[in-house]
Specification:
This protein has 302 residues and is of the alpha/beta class. 39% of the residues lie in helices and 24% in strands. It has nine helices and twelve strands. The strands form three sheets. Strands 3, 4, 5, 6, 7, 10, 11 and 12 form an eight-stranded mixed β-sheet that branches. This is LysR family transcriptional regulator.
Length: 302
């Protein structure tokens, strides 16, 4: 298909004149004098190769060629105007698509309030929410398959990614209701030494896994992990069956399972960190908008 070379001012002048059918009125709408308008129309007719208007004393009207061109000219101008408006909306971050990865346990804490506030401020943005653990989130950010991550225990240093802490929380012991320690209001970590453990695999979040095992090592024992589960809800379900105990972030208390007891641990100084993560060189304007949402309406960080 031959690429048309029709300057937009000529198309605009043609459409206005076709609507007014009067050079004086059309020139006034366009904010130009009549001679420049006549020149624009002649140049356009030269491009087309045929007259677009028939000029008779006291009146003008569209020729068959002009009537044929008018819908396409209007469509082109409208399409361009809509395209420019859409580009400005996307460029400003008022519309577009934001892909967010989140650790499942954060659906109990940070995620609902963050999404609610963001949607109130940017209702036209399409949110793509994907549940994934920390290690897959970090990979997805680097591979550009998500734009924002909400994860636990981010790496201390990273040249590609930025991190901001949004929440810290202590750990709790997760016990079967029938476990002898469930009768206590608080549990010393060393009291868990003789119980098998149920934990997330280290591969899905090495820093958090190491933080939990280091709590045990500081209490004088290495935990005997006999079961793994990828999600905390599954960990709690396995604990309920009596397969072991666990140490988990305090927000896991919100998983309501009748046969599971959550108990404060002693000492209780250790805290797990929840962070938002993003690519430092990301050009998506929605990313800083989401980060600003966190700054303007931060969750309870303690």
């Amino acid at each position: 298909m031959e690429r048309p070379e029709l300057p937009l001012p000529q198309l605009h002048a043609f459409v206005v004149l076709a609507e007014e059918l009067h050079f004086g009125h059309a020139a006034s709408r366009l904010g130009i004098a009549q001679p420049p308008l006549s020149q624009q129309i002649r140049r356009l007719e030269d491009k087309v190769g045929y007259a677009l208007f028939s000029r008779e004393p006291g009146r003008i009207c569209l020729t068959p060629a002009g009537r044929q061109l008018l819908p396409a000219a209007r469509h082109a101008l409208t399409g361009l105007a809509e395209g420019l408006a859409a580009a400005r909306e996307v460029g400003s971050g008022r519309v577009g698509r934001l892909r967010i990865g989140f650790a499942a346990s954060l659906a109990l804490t940070v995620l609902p309030g963050l999404l609610r506030t963001f949607r109130e401020r940017f209702p036209a943005v399409d949110l793509d929410i994907q549940e994934m653990t920390t290690t897959p989130q970090l990979a997805a950010l680097r591979e550009r398959t998500i734009d924002i991550g909400l994860l636990r225990e981010p790496p201390a240093h990273d040249t590609e990614l930025g991190f901001e802490t949004v929440l810290t929380e202590p750990f709790v012991a997760v016990l079967s209701s029938s476990h002898p320690l469930a009768a206590q209001r608080a549990v010393r970590v060393e009291q868990l030494a003789d119980s098998p453990f149920v934990l997330l695999p280290r591969a899905v979040g090495p820093p958090l896994y190491d933080q939990i095992t280091n709590l045990c090592i500081a209490a004088g024992f290495t935990p005997q992990v006999t079961q793994h589960a990828v999600e905390w809800q599954t960990v709690c379900a396995l604990v309920e069956t009596g397969l072991g105990v666990s140490l988990a972030p305090e927000s896991i208390r919100r998983i309501r399972l009748k046969g599971v007891a959550f108990r404060r641990i002693e000492p209780n100084a250790a805290r797990t960190r929840v962070a938002v993560a993003w690519r430092k060189n990301d050009s998506n304007p929605l990313v800083p908008h989401l980060l600003a949402t966190l700054d303007q309406d931060p969750p309870d960080r303690h």
